[in-house]
Protein 1
Amino acid sequence: MKRFCLIAIAAGCSLMAQAQTNATNTLSTPRGPTLINSDSADFDLTGHEATYHGHVRVDDPQMKLTCEQLIVDLPAAGGRVNHIVAETNVVIDFLDNKGQTNHMTSEKAVYVYKVENGLTNETVTLSGKPQPQMENAQGKQSGDVIIWNRVNTNTYARIIGDYHLIAYQHFSGAVAGTNSSAASTNSDAAAKTTRVPPDAVENTNPAVPPGQP
Amino acid sequence: MSARANIAGMAFAAGAALWFTAATGGRAQQDGHASDFTTTEYFPGQKQVKTILSGAEAIPRTGGLLIIKQLKLQKFNTDGKLECIVTAPECIYDTKGCTASSAGPLQLQNGDGKFQVAGEGFLWRQTNSFLTISNQVRTRIENGATANIKP
């Protein structure tokens, strides 16, 4: 029996939720190193800036990123990297706290790390044209700006501006004519699309796209 | 001529004074080669060390070029803290243009070693402290920080 589940990024959906950029009630664990590979690079030791060019790949414990250019503010001794800009064909893949793969694309991504009043903020802001997209098993969403909160692993993204949503339909059991499990079948062909006018200001809860009751 | 004077004379040739302002040791040979040398540059008008350059061997070439083997360059800030260390098995230093270059490997790390870079082929422009690595750039950043996880 084919059980039809329309996933419209329901309230409990782990895809996205309201961003809270302040980490509270958290434990700290050591984080592994970040590796950056590229074809070439320039290091401005006066301006404390590194610019990587060509086939840039970042391997971080929380994500994988590829792009064509990456600009890193070099940390002073004892400091840490707190500002990175990725440009051109930016692709980010990461696992959320439920082990679910998330895929994001954009023309520009800006990483910011800062600690204010004892609270840690760590975000990645995606922007540019074409619109940034974020996709996982539940669906695909796009907006003028996507802000990914890397600190709070339960609520980690916010979409601002012209908002689009494609919610995937999920099937349990075998699909007629195939041997594939419906649970693993996600396709745009079986998707519900929602588009919100460009004047939509902010979507703080993707379960209810902007403009929807 | 003392070893110190020989090294200094070699390094300062053709206006290399921008790079070295003092030589602090090493052994010089009659053909102009020097070995196990260290030179120090100071911030203008100060006694504060700006850079320390050392090498296992320095071989002068025509045109104001100097082949340096086992290069190690340490750069300090005005507070005396180590900013970065650059090492390379070999490079060519252009005393006229104040540049160092090589087709070979290079390593760079910041003062605490948490930001490390390696690559193949480089050009170092001393006048503005600008380093270009041409190929196979690999960077390792020790976050030193922590991942925050809800209990």
Protein 2
Amino acid sequence: MTLALVASSSSSLVHLHPVDMVIIVFYFALVLAIGFYLKGKANTGEDFFMAGREMTAWVAGLSFLSANLGALELMGWAGSAYQYGILATHWYWIGAIPAMLFLALVMMPFYYISKTHSVPGYLKLRFGEPCRIVSAVSFAFMTVLMSGVNMFAMAKVMQIVLGWDLNFSIWVSSLTVAIYVTLGGLRSAIFNEVLQFFLIWAGALLIPILGLYEAGGWGNLKILIAQRASEQYVHMWAGLGSFSTNPMGIHWTGIVFGLGAVISMGYWTTDFLVVQRILAAKDMRSAEMAPIIGAGFKMLVPIIVILPGLLGLGLLPMKLLPESQAVATHGYSYNDVLPLMLARYCGPGLLGLGITALIAGFMSGMAGNVSAFTTVWTYDIYRPLINSKGSDHHYVNMGRWTTVIGVLISVGTAYLVMRSASIMDYVQALFSFFIAPLFGTVVLGMLWKRATGPGGFWGLLCGTVSSISMWAWVKVDPTALRYVALSPDAKALAQDMYQALWSFLVCVTVTVVVSLATKPIPESALKGLVYGETDIPPIENVPMYQKPLFWAVIVAAIFVILNIIFW
Amino acid sequence: MTQGRLISIWFFIGMSLLVNGLIILAAGLYEYSHPPALDAQVVLFQLHAGVWWGGLLALVGGLYCWKYAPSRG
């Protein structure tokens, strides 16, 4: 999707006024001020890498959500909503809510009680060093590359939307991120992510409000969309009984089992980029409440992402095109829908706030990648493999230097992608290879006592290799799609769903088989790590309405009702 | 929420909303009194979104700044 977002265009989509520039400059000044203010509060390893483990549920929850709410996400999914209709909402609801609740109620106690600094750190405790190293090296490598890819994508989008120079965007954004993360560590990244969350809503919420006013309400918008596209564009489940009766070419099994049960579980429960925010919570109840708060707000995000795409489909006078056609005809692409809607309704000042929201999204995503990379490098690669006897102060200094080096590698990656855009496609594909199998390894480790070190290691390795193999098979022979995604009509997103599902099943199968064939881990070594061997302290002395389970049930009920309403 | 002796994150958010809201409100009021040419107006210009949206942001930001001001401890 990112690749499509950055395909070249000849002229800028919007033109900023001086007042818009004032708003953008104020944002940069504020994030730097926060970094300098927090400089003196990040002196120990716990402070720098874990934000002192003192975040409230609200701060951790909003940061957890914000780390995923980058501008590419906003623009890409708004474009997907224009292209596929309301089906794109699945990535926000079934593709997130069950996984967030599962993380809160089932997995978080093990992460939190084990006091691990990272997801690879948990794998070390549960499966041993080899498993940790495979996970840490792949995560660190891919995270810093992803950061570079996003940096280039941001610069390209700024060039397309505003006409800004690529080098200017890359260096200004990366230096700003490097300064505030180096100074304040994870706490600085979290503060800026929460700030970004509010800026995104402040900058983007006007579009659906004014759009629905112009359309004459949701009922009229559905009629407009049915006239200009098809009635299937406003149904989430009604067209999923067959691959050919919906705009995405996907079957409900792909959405439920591929997206809901594997991909989203893998991303929201094992991607350290998001999990790190929850590990910074001040206590167990906050750690459980944070993903639930995140889930509550995640259900609302389609208002500022999917709805603008649908409004564009119903209201924009021009027809948006696939990226390749847009480039060839000098027209507008699907991914231009959000900036186009922004320019449609927002005058001076409001436009600056909308653009600031996009920039904030980019920078906060980059900061999330860099802070996660720094922690995994320092605690899961440098300390066990290179220098295990350093002082706390030494590791903090290593973290600060790693932040700078991580940003520089990201800048290098951005320039590499500038030379060959196809690299971006490969990096994004590579990242997805690790997510689904990692979830299989972690969840078996937490819920099945019999899983052994060799089982976890070989399961993770085989699951990852199977994912890469399926991707390469379809790349070499596109007709293989009928086997991997169960249909020749499947689009790229549908392929991802099934690829994840099969690699997860391979991981689980290999883990189970190898574990049963190897010597069990003594139960005494599993305390605090596995269900049945861990005393999870009950949350007492708080009224019912403050208990995580209470709010999880409410969020789950709203999730079901929303799916029925938009069936 | 205050992180120990740190200035609360909500104060920074309040400041951001307040300053942005005031800038947008001022720009909206200027456009209200000096409307641009018809072909330069945004869709639904007559609703003057900058005025009420900027005012709302400034109000929310002001409340946050007041409630979480460092001086209130």
